Amino acid sequence: MRDRGIVFIMKNAVVSALLALVLFSLMIGIRTESGPSGQLTYWTRFGELAAAVGAVFVGSIIVETLKRWTGSIGPVELPETVRRAFAMLGRLLTPALLLFALLVPVIFYNQRYLLDLGILVLTYVMLGWGLNIVVGLAGLLDLGYVAFYAVGAYSYALLAQSGLPFPYFTEASPYIAINFLQPGPWAFWVLLPVSGLLAAFWGMLLGFPVLRLRGDYLAIVTLAFGEIIRLVILNWQELTGGPNGISGIPRPTVFGIPLTPGEDGFAALIGVPFSPTHRLVFLFYIILALALLTNWVTIRLRRLPIGRAWEAMREDEVACRALGINITTTKLSAFAIGAMFGGFAGAFFATRQGFISPESFTFQESALVLAIVVLGGMGSQLGVALAAIAMIGGFELFRGLDQFRMLVFGGVMVLLMIWRPRGLVSHRAPTVFLQKQTEIASSLVKEGRG
Amino acid sequence: MSAATTPLLAIRGLRAAYGKIEALKGIDLDIQAGEIVALIGANGAGKSTLMMTIFGRPRARAGEILFDGQNISSMPTHEVARLRIAQSPEGRRIFPRMTVRENLQMGADATPGSKAERAVSLERVLNLFPRLQERMEQRGGTLSGGEQQMLAIGRALMSRPRLLLLDEPSLGLAPLITRQIFSAIRTLNCEDRLTVLIVEQNANHALRLAHRGYVMVNGLITMSGDGMELLQRPEIRAAYLEGGRHA
Ligand SMILES: Nc1ncnc2c1ncn2[C@@H]1O[C@H](COP(=O)(O)OP(=O)(O)O)[C@@H](O)[C@H]1O
Ligand SMILES: [Mg+2]
Fold first, then answer.
1. Is B220 exposed, middle or buried (0-12, 13-18, 19+ CB in 10 A)?
2. What is the arithmetic mean of pLDDT over A81-98?
3. Could you tell me where the beta strands, DSSP code E, fall in B32-81?
4. What is the pLDDT of residue B160?
5. Is the pLDDT of residue A162 over 70?
6. Which residues of A touch B95 (CB under 8 A)?
7. Residue B69 beta carbon below 6 angstroms from any ligand 1 atom
8. Which residues of B touch A444 (CB under 8 A)?
9. Cα–Cα 20 to 30 A to B1, which of A108, A183, A432, B89?
10. Ramachandran quadrant class, B46 (left: phi over 0; alpha: psi -120 to 50; beta: rest)
11. Hey, which residues 426-445 in chain A have their CB within 8 Å of chain B?
């Protein structure tokens, strides 16, 4: 738009300022606190309110003027050569990243902090890839993914404490008795798949009631599901320890050999001096392997009819049905498989921390993982990995500025959604999408899809 | 096509409704194996509803839909499709972000068939619509309207259907493209003995192509007969040809 006159700019600024006034009048204009005897005390802060509204007014003028100079901000159209170069880089990026990931424990062997950060990033890469199956491929907006992370973590923690229950028939009585099999040093390796399966089971349970829901409604129900799981964990004291959580969760072993300083420890066995870093390196490789497994399975599934059906369902459910696709099983499988990887990640989280409590499974986690998927480009594996690195890495960078972290995070998200509305790597829709995309949309509308 | 043989699809007293609005008020319709049947009617007559009711959505309130003698009126949509009844729905509904190849694969995914059979179907589709061949790796949404319609029909053909339902395949297409598509349908009928029910507002093309035709008004069949014979009737010419002349 070239005809942004001064009148337009002023009008825009006034509207923004009015909006700010309405929003801020309660948020900033009135400060409430509980007084000494519990009563509500409040006082007004009209000065601050005026400053905030003024800032919005001036900011709006500046932004509009800038827009006038630079043209409207839209997705950046890159020239052909640059695009080629990016494509080349893109092809090299994946193997380079993989190689780097494999070498991280070697390069940063002496920097425990970085190793820890690497493990954290990889956990989110894995969660992102898992949720990507549900949101990116199948197009089911899931705001409660943390539930499956929690189910995985608690399944592992609880089963490691009690042992795996095995029902058997007794000769003496007509009842079924339950035997608990103590997996001992193999706990993590036995219970990892079990945790994943339990999470998948809960994924299906979530799937049934939301089969007919789409979009916003689906988002709300999944959000509630995530909260319900957390609240149940919080309140079922006898089983989960409630807010105190569960501690003393067994650490992973090198396939039966513990990573401890003792005689029968891994270090002694291979004849090197013990170091606590060994466990960190081992954890790093476990989560790397789990994340790569998630990625590999996703890539495989996408080439199979089930993966195609997920994507087709995201595009047009009605058309899918008419082609003989069973939407029920397609949806449930997406929920179940996505949840399974969330469960694996949860079990890993539990074994890594050695301690879990409901605090680790709040909605914020779901939001973070969803942000990674959206930022990564809904369906792009590489994009999700890059987004996880950027977000978790970014969070660590701003750790000192704790109170501004969310502000920066929000700002970056807004900017990215303006400049790259399809995410960092828009796999299915390369950079040419914008004009085409609107064309498609309008042509679909024109033809009346009903 | 003697009346003595049992029809491939027989619809008896079919009623369907959206909430309280009754869209089909007792439809009787027969399709013999190997026939092309045209269903014509004005906008809102209930043609698309009839096609969708065959596929179980909306569900039939009364009456029967017999496919090969089996009542399918209460079957879920995906099971109907697996009986090898295929459709090219109104508005095409191809998958815009998936490639032409993936769209075609989707057509074959749900129905059982060997790899070799799939390859044969694919070859047949590309043979009928060579323009798709050149665009196999292009995203469906970037195709022209005519190509999208070819893709929608091609996708339906990938399941090697016994009955093909086409909802307004000529909608919004240039005359040349419409002719190509109708000629492909004729070829399929002659060479592959494919049975086709074609829904059209454009009576001219459809009735010329079809062996028999039905006319639908407000959820009821008001006329039926031989395609060319229907086309000669003055009331049909008055009601359905003027609008269809451009297409
Ligand atoms: N999803 C729907 N919900 C409610 N009414 C519908 C719906 N689809 C179609 N109708 C109504 O059913 C009648 C028949 O529509 P339709 O079968 O689409 O007609 P046609 O395909 O012959 O143009 C119309 O009156 C239309 O308004
Ligand atoms: Mg219609």
1. middle
2. 83
3. 36-41, 62-67, 70-71
4. 95
5. yes
6. 311-312, 315-316, 319
7. no
8. 91, 96
9. B89
10. left
11. 428-429, 436-437, 440, 443-444
CB of A309 less than 8 A from some CB of B: yes
Domain contains B108: no
Ligand closest to the CA atom of residue B219: 1
| Structural element, H or E, at residue B225 | strand B220-226
Say which amino acid occupies A169: F
Neighbours of A166 (CB within 10 A): 10
On average, the pLDDT of chain A sits at 85
Report whether pLDDT(A390) > 60: yes
Q: Tell me the C-alpha distance between A91 and A95, whole Å.
A: 8
Number of domains in chain B: 1
Query: DSSP letter at A136?
Result: I
Encode A235-272: b = buried (16+ Cβ within 10 Å), e = exposed.
eeeeebbeeebbeebbbbbbeeebbbeeeebbbeeeee
CA angle A437, A442, A444 (to 5 degrees): 95
Q: Pull the structure tokens for residue A110.
A: 């002496």
Q: Residue A60: pLDDT above 80?
A: yes
CATH number of the domain where residue B211 is located: 3.40.50.300
Kindly report the pTM of this predicted structure. 0.84
Would you say residue B173 lies in a domain?
no
> Which class for B53: exposed (0-12), middle (13-18), buried (19 or more C-beta within 10 A)?
buried
- pLDDT: is B161 or A182 the higher one? B161
Whether A321 sits inside 8 A of B159 (CB atoms) is no
CA A291-A295-A296 angle, 5° bins: 115
Q: What are the start-end ranges of the H helices in A108-186?
A: 112-132, 146-162
A85 contact B CB<8A: no
Sequence-ordered alpha helix ranges (H) in A133-178: 146-162
DSSP-derived pairing of the beta strands B36-41 and B195-200: parallel
pLDDT digits (tens, 9 = 90+) for A195-229: 999 999 999 999 999 888 877 899 999 999 999 99
**pLDDT above 90 coverage of chain B, percent:** 86
Which range is least confidently modeled, A33-37, A187-191, A233-237, B183-187?
Answer: A33-37
* DSSP-assigned beta bridge partners for residue A169: A176
Whole-number pLDDT of residue A261: 86
Domain for residue B22, yes or no? Answer: yes
Q: Is B142 inside a domain boundary?
A: no
Residues with CB under 5 A from ligand 2 (ion): B 48, 90
Instruction: List CB contacts of A235: < 8 A, sequence separation 6 or more.
Output: A242
Domain that residue B235 falls in: 1-75+196-247
Ordered DSSP codes for A197-241: HHHHHHHHHHHTTTTT--HHHHHHHHHHHHHHHHHHHHH-HHHH-
Q: Is A446 on the interface with B (CB under 8 A)?
A: yes
Nearest chain B residue to A321 by CA: give it. Answer: B78
